[in-house]
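Field log, afternoon session.

UNIT: design team B
ACTIVITY: writing a sequence onto a fixed backbone
BACKBONE:
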């Protein structure tokens, strides 16, 4: 399977004989939308390309809740063009004869929910806030320090959450030389022992235990007061704080917004010197984020050295965004991070093929299924 060229297209290279034309190709059934065929001009490719528009998944369309007719052998669906004889149909992909067990589809494309119930969406945002000494610096043209700008923006955002989406869960994680988990601020903050800042498993355990988040409608006043009280001091234990934030977000199906202006220099993930151990830490953090579908976003200030070459991978590989901002842009930058709805993460597409066609570089099941 070739890499995805953009957010709308998925290209699957097929071993189709050169003599085949679009008209000669057998019908191919996809779970996303009608497939379009096009030829490739790359001489290194041996066949044609199937292009599936996955952008259709976000559109509001009619959904079928009734049962569907699946092939007993390959699990392909009965389509509106299949021929029915004596209440039976022959699968065009594996040749199995199947009995009709429910209604025959009448449209070209049908959206069907496999699960009986759709999980209720829970919004959660974990703010991972740098309060190290450098955050007291003032940006050019601003009378406020960097931390004050971040505080003001977060206060504005949580006010919006309270009014527009009161079921949102907010968590505050603060870091300087140490890491403090404020959670939803309805309980006393939990300070992380310095000895734990270099222990990946211990940090995961702390973040996984006893962190209960309530809706912003219940915690707004306490969060607002705690954010106002943040003060700058110390170094930058960014790595441990980001790991803790990720594990909390993983528990609540949330996203992380990291607000920092400096380079990690305390505990795991220190970027003063990028060692193999440092790279392994961030790779493992990314793995944990991807297991839970956690998106990591980073906001930083202009001309700040965060070693984005290494740190930025946490965003790139979790489908997040990196925003470098100036004081006048801070609120809109934060708002942009929360506007983008994720349709799905860690998804896959099943491709069913008839015997005449195979998929290049996929030899499982006789090249018939990816």
């Amino acid at each position: 399977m070739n890499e995805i060229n953009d957010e709308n297209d998925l290209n699957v290279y097929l071993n189709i004989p050169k003599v085949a034309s679009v008209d000669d190709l057998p019908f191919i059934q996809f779970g996303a939308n009608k497939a379009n065929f096009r030829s490739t001009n790359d001489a290194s490719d041996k066949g044609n390309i199937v292009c599936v528009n996955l952008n259709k998944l976000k559109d509001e369309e009619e959904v079928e809740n009734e049962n569907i007719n699946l092939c007993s052998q390959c699990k392909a669906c009965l389509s509106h063009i299949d021929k029915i004889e004596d209440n039976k149909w022959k699968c065009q992909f594996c040749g199995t004869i199947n009995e009709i067990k429910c209604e025959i589809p009448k449209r070209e494309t049908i959206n069907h929910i496999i699960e009986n119930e759709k999980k209720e969406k829970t919004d959660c945002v974990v703010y991972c806030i740098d309060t190290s000494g450098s955050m007291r610096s003032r940006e050019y043209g601003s009378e406020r320090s960097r931390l004050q700008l971040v505080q003001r923006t977060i206060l504005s955002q949580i006010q919006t959450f309270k009014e527009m989406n009161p079921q949102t869960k907010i968590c505050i994680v603060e870091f300087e030389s140490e890491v403090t988990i404020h959670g939803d601020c309805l309980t006393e903050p939990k300070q992380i022992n310095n000895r734990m800042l270099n222990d990946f498993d211990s940090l995961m355990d702390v973040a996984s235990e006893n962190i209960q988040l309530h809706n912003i409608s219940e915690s707004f006043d306490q969060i607002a007061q705690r954010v106002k009280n943040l003060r700058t001091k110390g170094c930058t234990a960014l790595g441990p704080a980001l790991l803790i934030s990720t594990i909390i977000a993983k528990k609540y199906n949330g996203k992380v917004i990291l607000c920092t202006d400096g380079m990690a220099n305390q505990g795991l993930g220190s970027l003063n010197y990028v060692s193999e151990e440092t790279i392994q830490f961030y790779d493992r953090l990314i793995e944990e984020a991807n297991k839970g579908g956690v998106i990591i976003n980073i906001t930083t200030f202009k001309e700040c050295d965060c070693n984005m070459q290494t740190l930025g991978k946490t965003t790139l590989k979790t489908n997040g965004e990196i925003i470098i901002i100036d004081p006048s842009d801070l609120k809109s930058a934060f708002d942009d991070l929360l506007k983008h709805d994720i349709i799905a993460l860690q998804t896959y597409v099943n491709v069913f093929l008839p015997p005449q066609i195979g998929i290049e570089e996929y030899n499982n099941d006789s090249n018939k299924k990816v």
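LOG NOTE: The longest helix spans residues 146-164.
NEXT ACTIVITY: expression trials, pending approval
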